[in-house]
Amino acid sequence: MRRLRNVKIVATLGPASSDYKMICALFEAGADVFRLNMSHGTHAEQAARHAIIRQVEADTGRPIAILADLQGPKLRVGVFANPAGEELIEGADFRMDLSSTPGDAARVQLPHPEIFAALEPGASLLVNDGKIRVRVKDCGKDYANCVVEVGGVISNRKGVNVPDVVLPLAALSAKDREDLEFACELGVDWLALSFVQRPEDVLEARQLARGRAAILSKIEKPAAVKAYDSILAVSDGIMVARGDLGVELPVTSVPPIQKRLVRGARAAAKPVIVATQMLESMIEAPVPTRAEVSDVATAIYEGADAIMLSAESAAGKYPIEAVTTMNNVAMSVEKDPTYRQVIEASRQVRRETTADGIVAAAREIAEATNIKAIACFSQTGTTASLVSRERPQVPILALTPLMSTARRMSLTWGLHCAITPPQDRFKGAVLAAVKIARDDEFASVEDMIVVTAGVPFNVKGTTNILRVAPCDERLISFSEPE
C-alpha cells in the first residue's frame, strides 16, 4: 500500500474507534499515525488499542506510528456551594484563594499555590477555556483579588489558564509520569508532551523515556512560543496545539504563530503536526464546512508534516468520513501547481554538513531528470528527515532494517517507510532500494532512482554517498570492490 500524498494524517482513537474493524478501516482510509490520548481511558483500554494497531500493522505489512499524548498538569478551580455555579458580573470583584470552603459569587478555591507564587498584579486568569476572564488587582502567597473583565457562569472544577506568567510547574504531573512509563513499556513510538514552557521540561521527559520513544513538544502556551527555538532544539518533533494557544493568546495571533512554528520545524528537519478543531463539525455531521476544508488546506500549503483529528475520529459519529475527507483534501492540494510554488518559496536552504549537500543534490538531480524516487538508507531516521526537509517532487523511500525507526519515520512528510535486510555494502543497498521501488510500484524496470546512504553502514550521521541507479539489476555495476 502506498499513499498518493505526502502530508501524513494522525487519527485519535477513542470510544468511536477502538475495535479492529474500525481501526483497520481508518488506516485504509488514510490514517498514518494513531494517537492514544492519555487524558481519557484506562491503561487497559489503551493497551488494547495498541495491540489492535500492531495487528493491523502486521496484517497490512506497513509500519504504523503510535503517538501517546500525555495529559499534563490540569489547573482547576474548586467547588461551589450552589451546584449550578455562580454568575460573575463584569466589573465585580472576585477572589481566588486556597481555602477549601465552597465558593460563592465573591470567591472560590484555586488549589494551586504555585499559581499564587507566580502571579503579579495585572496578570489575567482565564476560566472555562477563556469564556471568563479576571484580572489580578493584588495578590499574595495564598490569594488573588481580581476584577471580572469578561463575565459568565462559573461552576465546579472549571479549568484555569494563566497566560501572562511562566508557572513554576513541571510539565509532567504524577499521572503523566505513570502514563509515560506505561506508554514506553507498551512500545509507543512518540510521546506528546503537554504544558511545555521551557526546554528543561522536554529534557526531563527525554530522561524518563530513555530512548524508548521520540519526544514531541506541544506548543500550547505563550511561554512555549517565546522559547520556541530552544524547545525545538531539544525536541524530536512539534505539535501546534491551536486549542490552548487560542485560549491563552488572542485568537487572531494563532495563524501567524502556526506559520512560524511550522517553518521553524521544517528548517530543523523535525516533523510538525498541526492539530485541534481541524474538522470539528464532523463530530456530528458527515461533511465538513468549507472553512474547515480551507483550514486543513492551509496547513498542507504551509508544508506541515501531519494534520490531526481529535474528537472527530475518537468520539465522533463519522470517523472514517473524517479521515477520508482529510485524505481527499490533501490529494487535491498537492496536485495544485500553486502548492509546489508555495513549497519551493518556503524552502530554507541549509548547507552546513555533507549530509545537507547530499540530500540537496539528490532532490535537484531527481527534479532535473526523469528520476522516479529518492531512496535513502537510515538507521535513526536522520537522513530520511533531511531528504523530507527538501520537500522533493518525487516520492521518498525511507529504508531501514529497524522497525522502530520505520514506525517513527511514518510521521514525517513524504516518507514511504520500508524494512530492508541489514546492509554492509553500498551495492547491496542499491539492489535493496531497487527491489522496494519496483515491488511497491514507485518505478518499473525501465526507470531510474537516486540512492543515498552513509558509508560505513550502521554509523549515525555518515550520509556521504549518492548514486543514480537503474531499476534493472543487470545494469547495476560498481567499479569499487564489493
What's the architecture of the largest domain in CATH terms? Alpha-Beta Barrel
Q: What Rg, in angstroms, do the CA atoms define? A: 24 Å
Strand line-up across the major sheet: 1-2-3-12-13-14-15-16
Number of strands: 21
Could you name the CATH topology of the largest domain?
A: TIM Barrel
Tally of DSSP helical segments: 17
Rounded average pLDDT: 94
The total tally of domains equals 3
Strand content: 15-25%
CATH top-level class of the largest domain: Alpha Beta
Q: Please describe the biggest sheet, giving its number of strands, its sense, and whether it closes into a barrel.
A: 8 strands, parallel, barrel
Shape: elongated
Please give a structural write-up:
By secondary structure, the protein is an alpha/beta fold. It has three domains: 8-72 and 170-336, Phosphoenolpyruvate-binding domains (TIM Barrel, Alpha-Beta Barrel), CATH 3.20.20; 86-161, M1 Pyruvate Kinase, Domain 3 (Beta Barrel), CATH 2.40.33; 354-475, 3-Layer(aba) Sandwich (Pyruvate Kinase, Chain: A, domain 1), CATH 3.40.1380. 37% of the residues lie in helices and 22% in strands. It is built from 17 helices and 21 strands. The chain has helices at residues 20-29, 43-60, 113-118, 174-186, 199-209, 222-226, 228-233, 242-248, 254-267, 290-301, 311-314, 319-335, 337-345, 354-368, 382-389, 403-409, 426-439, and strands at residues 8-13, 33-37, 65-69, 86-88, 93-97, 107-109, 124-127, 132-140, 143-150, 152-154, 160-161, 190-193, 214-219, 237-241, 272-275, 306-309, 371-377, 396-400, 415-419, 448-454, 463-470. The strands form four sheets. It has an eight-stranded parallel beta barrel, surrounded by nine helices. The protein has a six-stranded mixed sheet with strand order 6-5-9-8-7-11, with no helix packed on it. It has a five-stranded mixed sheet with strand order 19-18-17-20-21, with helices on both faces. The relative contact order is 0.11.
